[in-house]
Design brief:
The structure holds 2 protein chains of 2 kinds. Helix content of chain A is 35%, strand content 25%. Chain A is of the alpha+beta class. Chain B has 2 domains: 54 residues, no CATH class; 77 residues, RNA polymerase II/Efflux pump adaptor protein, barrel-sandwich hybrid domain (OB fold (Dihydrolipoamide Acetyltransferase, E2P), Beta Barrel). Chain B has a 4-stranded antiparallel β-sheet, with no helix packed on it. In chain B, strands 7-6-4-9 form a 4-stranded antiparallel β-sheet, with no helix packed on it. Classes of the chains: A alpha+beta, B mainly beta.
């Protein structure tokens, strides 16, 4: 087991990693920017090193400063958390070169999963279903017709070099295909300097389903079930739950097995999440993989009783999956609400001084947060204030506990999205488990996608 | 004529028309009774005494915990516990002393090599751009230069010790404009 770990992160995840280290008897080093001098992760770690001014680029993303801090404190491993340097293959390589264990997958695997079309190609080759589409850029109208015949309608034409909705066209009928192809290409040329487009099947009313995995450094991989993360606003997850209300046991088992096989083939280790889109017929299509621990990991922890962060650390230290995880079962239902420092209606960020802070408790209620009474939420980082997670023997109990917990969560001095979560929980469609990725955008009045 | 006087606890204040002995008695009175603030007016004299607060509601600043000295050439094996410093306040400088703070994280060396003389000592006059020390980070020796001309009056770190971003290293007394 490691003697000392540096946590290359801040906020609630830094605290999460800190507690896992404490439970394992590992000493901890916190790094912090000048804006985080009074942060809890600094206070609770055994040692702390200031690594830069407030801006992330100058501090938490500053590889030389983070590595330097690791060297002067003589750590044997670094846990990168999520975001920041957690999926930076270069950083993982620098750690290795400095003889510091990076708690995560190997640099090669990180790199593979980070290049989205490469990940898609590798996972498809390894047997995972991917969204049917062109095998790359569609060069001309003839090719476009061929792809359309293969993939079927409706389909999407997307700019290869860009995003943000430009160079994108939906095609629902054969007649629309060529005109859409042509305008997509000229729009892409205008917006991104390249007329390259690719095509893929349009998944209507999609739901976002992701599988949690763990791998050791000896070639073994398991999955710990799925999370449903369909409730997103502008592609940012707002609420997550496990299990999904639409995944049956047979699909879970089938896709779970495909995930394990594919990840064994690429030599995946540590924690990770494989993300899928589910269409109305129930088909799951791989979209991408996040080669790190995720924000919503507590949801899986609640229904499996497996400590994912402790597992990451033990697996990175070379332990075998069987010893670290062993047999487990799925019990009950868990929901997580991400509480952000934002106006619940305009979503404008609301950093500032918290004047009152009271978290709910009781059976089946978990709060992961680095906020406290009198804390200042700085404007330089993400707006997550707290993760409120509830567990129930079934979904109805998890929901009713969440409603009570939201009512008992007091935050004053800044605005939070607690009222938004109350609205979501009150929606009949949410209660019925009927939603797709447009649900929240509709609820919050954002037109289109 | 009403005159206001303010005094930190224990510090003597000097003001016209105020009996200092009386002020001291008032301060003692405040101390005995645990008062933070005291105000009164008598015979045209208005006195307000307020204790300088040492504690405010914010949680205590985490003193920089001891950072283990790296195993450099240093013979001292016991981890040199760096004195718990309040990271928010460097040693309070005099008004014309310019603080040089570390721009990087690493290990501080006062000389270009273990056998050489230190770059500067207290009293050394330096020019703007002159090298004051080396901070080693990731096997690279970074020369830290002064950004002002003046006299080195404070050296706040020890050779071979780790330093963090923003850590005060030197106090340089500038003589007027650069």
């Amino acid at each position: 087991m490691f003697k000392k770990i540096l946590i290359a992160n801040r906020g609630e995840i830094a605290l999460r990693i800190l507690s896992a280290c404490k439970e394992l008897g590992v000493r901890t080093v916190a790094v912090y920017s000048e804006a985080d001098r009074h942060a809890l992760h600094v206070r609770f770690a055994d040692e702390a090193v200031c690594i830069g001014p407030p801006r992330s680029a100058d501090s938490y993303l500053n590889i030389p400063h983070v590595i330097s801090a690791a060297e002067i404190t003589d750590v044997d491993a670094i846990h990168p958390g999520y975001g920041f340097l957690s999926e930076n293959a270069n950083f993982a390589e620098v750690c290795e070169a400095s003889h510091i264990t990076f708690i995560g997958p190997s640099p090669d695997v990180i790199r593979m999963m980070g290049e989205k079309d490469r990940a898609r190609a590798e996972m498809a080759a390894a047997g995972l279903p991917v969204i049917p589409g062109s095998a790359g850029v569609v060069p001309d109208e003839e090719a476009a017709k061929e792809v359309a015949a293969e993939v079927g309608l409706p389909l999407m034409i997307k700019a290869a070099e860009g995003g943000g909705g430009r160079g994108m066209r939906v095609v629902r009928t054969k007649k629309e295909l060529i005109p859409a192809f042509q305008t997509a290409r000229s729009e892409a040329e205008q917006a991104f300097g390249s007329s390259n487009v690719y095509m893929e099947k349009l998944i209507e009313h999609p739901r976002h389903i992701e599988f949690q995995v763990l791998g050791d450094r000896h070639g073994n991989v398991i999955h710990l079930g799925e999370r449903e993360c369909t409730l997103q606003r502008r592609h940012q997850k707002v609420l997550e739950e496990s299990p999904s209300t639409v995944l049956d046991a047979a699909t879970r088992e089938r896709v779970g097995k495909q995930v394990i096989d594919a990840l064994r083939k690429v030599g995946y280790s540590s924690a990770g999440t494989v993300e899928f889109l589910r269409d109305v017929t129930g088909e799951l299509y791989f979209i991408e993989m996040n080669a790190r621990i995720q924000v919503e990991h507590p949801v899986t922890e609640m229904v499996t009783q497996v400590d994912l962060v402790k597992s990451q650390i033990r697996l990175a230290a070379g332990e075998h999956l069987d010893d670290v995880v062993g047999p487990f079962q799925f019990h009950g239902h868990a929901i997580e609400c991400r509480i952000n420092a934002e106006d619940p209606e305009t979503f404008r960020p609301s950093p500032g001084h918290i004047t009152a802070f009271r978290v709910p408790g009781g059976p089946g209620v978990r709060v992961d947060t680095a906020a406290y009474s009198d804390a200042v939420i700085p404007p330089y980082y993400d707006s997550l204030v707290a993760k409120l997670v509830t567990y129930g023997r079934d979904r109805a109990e998890a929901i009713v506990r969440m409603e009570g917990a939201l009512d008992g969560f007091v935050v004053e001095g800044i605005k939070t999205t607690i009222p938004l979560h109350k609205r979501i929980l009150a929606e009949p469609d949410f209660e019925a488990g009927k939603f797709d990725t447009h649900f929240l955008d509709r609820l919050t009045g954002i037109a289109g996608k | 004529m009403a005159k206001k006087t303010k005094s930190g606890s224990g510090a003597g204040a000097h003001a016209e028309g105020v009996d200092l002995i009386e002020v001291k008695r008032l301060l003692a009175f405040m101390q005995e009774n645990g008062l933070e603030e005291f105000e009164y007016e008598r015979s045209g004299v208005h006195i307000r005494l307020k204790k300088a607060s040492t504690v405010h509601a914010a949680p205590p600043v985490a003193a920089v915990p001891p950072v283990a000295a790296p195993a450099v050439a240093a013979p001292a094996h016991a981890p040199a516990a760096a004195p718990a410093r309040d990271p928010a306040q460097p040693a309070s400088p005099a008004a014309d002393v310019h603080m040089i703070k570390s721009p990087i994280v690493g290990t501080y060396y006062s000389a270009p090599s273990p056998e050489a003389e230190p770059f500067v000592t207290v009293g050394t006059r330096v020019e703007s751009g002159q090298v004051l020390c080396i901070i080693e980070a990731m096997k690279l020796m970074n020369e830290i230069e002064s950004d002002v001309a003046g006299e080195v009056v404070q050296i706040l770190v020890e050779n071979g010790h780790p330093v963090e971003y923003g850590e005060p290293l030197f106090g340089i007394r500038t003589q007027g404009k650069k």
